[in-house]
Amino acid sequence: MKTGRVIRSLSGVYRVDVDGTLYDAKPRGLFRKKQVSPIVGDIVDIDDETHASGYIQHIHQRKNELKRPPVSNIDLLVIVMSAVSPSFSTQLLDRFLVIGHSYGLKPRIVITKKDLASETEIATIEKSLAIYEEIGYETQFVGIEDSAASIFDVWEPGLAVLSGQSGVGKSSLLNKYQPNFNIETNEISSALNRGKHTTRHVELYPRHEGFIADTPGFSALDFDHIDKEALRDNFIEISHYGASCKFRDCYHLNEPKCQVKAMVEEGKIPEFRYQHYVQLLNEISNRKVKY
C-alpha cells in the first residue's frame, strides 16, 4: 500500500503522485456504493498492482474542498487578475475573495500584465493594492517579462490553486514557470473583454515545495452556499469592526450605532469595499430559493 496525492482526474482514471512516481489508479467499487468519488488534491492510499497502475483503497479526510472546480486540501488560493485585457476590477476581485474566504481558504492577490498597462492604470492599480495590503492581503503586481519563479517560489509550501477569470494569464504563467507543462492558451475576445476557456479540467503541477493547480476559468461566481450572516465574515475589515456594533445581528445597512458604517465614514473601511458588500448582500437577499 502506498500513499500519494491525486494530481489529475480524466474519464474515471486518477493519476496519483507517490513521492514523484506516478500511478494511474481506479477507485474500488466500494466508493460507488458510498457515493464518494476521489477529487484532485485528495490524499489517497493505493494498492499498486504494477509499477504504473493500481486501485484507490482509501481517501484521507480532506482539510478543505472547493466544489467548483472540485479540488481539495488547498494551502493557498491565488486570485489572478490582469491589469488590462481584461481590465482590473476591484468588484470582481472582491467577489473572488468572498468565495475564497467562504471555503476557509487563505487568498493571495496577483495582478498580471503590468508592462501592458499605461502609467495611469498602473498608478490606479497600485493604489488599490495598497488598500488590500492594509486590510491584510499579500499582493504581487507583475509583468509578462517577470520571472515566473520569482512569482511562484515566494509562496508558502503546499498546494496553491490559481483562480480567476479566463484570459488573465494563469496558464501562460504556468507555461513560463515550466515550459514542459504545455498548457493550452488562447486569445482574448475583444468583444467580451475576457479570455476563452482553455483549461477544461483541474490538474496539479509540481512547483517549489509543493504543487500548483490551474483551474477552469470562471465566467460566473456561485454564491449559493453563502448566506447573509456568513457574508459579513467574508469581508475581513467588516467582520473586525462589526464585532463592535450595538446589535449582534447588524447587517450594517440602516441599523443604529453601526460601527461598520461609522468606520466607512471615517475612512477606516474603504468605501468601495463597503459598496461591494452591500451589492452582494442584496444579491443574496433577493435570490430565489432552490428546492
Can you characterise this structure?
By secondary structure, the chain is of the alpha/beta class. It folds into three domains: 2-61, Nucleic acid-binding proteins (OB fold (Dihydrolipoamide Acetyltransferase, E2P), Beta Barrel), CATH 2.40.50.140; 66-214, 3-Layer(aba) Sandwich (Rossmann fold); 228-286, Probable gtpase engc, domain 3 (Ribonucleotide Reductase Protein R1, domain 1). It is 29% helix and 26% strand. The strands form four sheets. Strands 10-9-8-11-15-14 form a six-stranded mixed β-sheet, sandwiched between helices.
Quick summary:
The protein has helices at 29-33, 90-102, 119-135, 148-152, 170-177, 228-233, 236-242, 259-266, 271-286, and strands at residues 2-10, 13-18, 21-27, 43-48, 53-59, 65-66, 71-72, 76-82, 107-112, 139-141, 158-163, 188-189, 194-195, 203-207, 210-214. With 291 residues, the protein is of the alpha/beta class.
